[in-house]
Amino acid sequence: MSRVAIVVQRCHPDIVGGSETLAWHYAQLLSDAYQVDVLTTTAIETSEWANTLPAGTETRDGVRIVRFPVTIGRSRYWVKLHDRLIEEFGILVPTKSQEVPQPDWTIALQEDLIRHQGPYSEPLLHYLNENWRDYRAVIFITYLYPTTYFGLQQLPAGRALFAPTLHDEMPAARTHALTQGDFASAQHGAGGRQIHEIEARDQPARSRIRRMRRRQN
What is the pLDDT of residue 169? Predict the structure, then answer.
């Protein structure tokens, strides 16, 4: 049976979150046709991304969950960067017509903001770099966290699928203005493709994802 990996920042029954729920829905739907590995971290809460759960592997509902320790959580350094971001951007309310300021942040500083927002997991990135060949596809869920931003960079072109879960929210507006396409460059540099391409290329996945969407609507 072919293997598929789903990368998401957290995975646990007690977690209520949009991207985490979406990742688990995909895992359950795809597990009928594939061996699914959810690659995630040992964190549960988002305030510091502390290593709460044990690292290692467990199986739930036929899905293999592999947890990696967080090496950089959310620290005071990130708070200072975020405060600087607020100071330079102001309070953005996402609208189609609003002109967004463009602070002069280097790529290194932008990536530091993403990295220290957490959860950044060096072991997870190393695993992706060493083991992506074992998977028919690696699916990254949500745009916001370093698990996706740096994870996409571990894969060569054509091997990543990306479900951004993008919607009108303050981080999306700031991310768009701050990176000015840098996130998109990381995505396409790794061959990241939108999740709908699963449906275009894969009949079993297409039918399962469409059933999921009908249930959600």
Answer: 63
Q: Which residue has the tokens 């981080």?
A: 171
- CATH number of the domain at 3-216, out of 3.30.1330, 3.40.50, 3.40.1000, 2.60.120? 3.40.50
State pLDDT tens for residues 10-62: 999 999 889 999 999 999 999 999 999 999 999 999 999 999 999 999 999 99
**101 contacts: CB under 8 Å, gap ≥ 6:** 88, 89, 90, 177
Beta bridge partners of 72: 120
State the Cα–Cα distance between residues 4 and 39, nearest whole angstrom. 10
**Per-domain boundaries in the chain:** 3-216
Q: What does residue 157 show for φ and ψ, rounded to 5 degrees?
A: -60, 140
DSSP annotation of 5 reads E
Listed as ranges, residues in the chain with pLDDT below 50 are 176-191, 196-203, 205-206, 209, 212-213, 216-217
Beta carbons of 142 and 164 less than 8 angstroms apart:
yes
Task: Give the gyration radius of the chain's Cα atoms.
Answer: 17
SS (H, E, C) 98-162: CCCCCCCCCHHHHHHHHHHHCCECHHHHHHHHHHHHHCCEEEEECCCCHHHHHHHCCCCCCCEEE
3-state class (DSSP) for residue 59: strand
- The pLDDT value given to residue 172: 59
- Cβ neighbour number for residue 129 with a 10 Å cutoff: 12
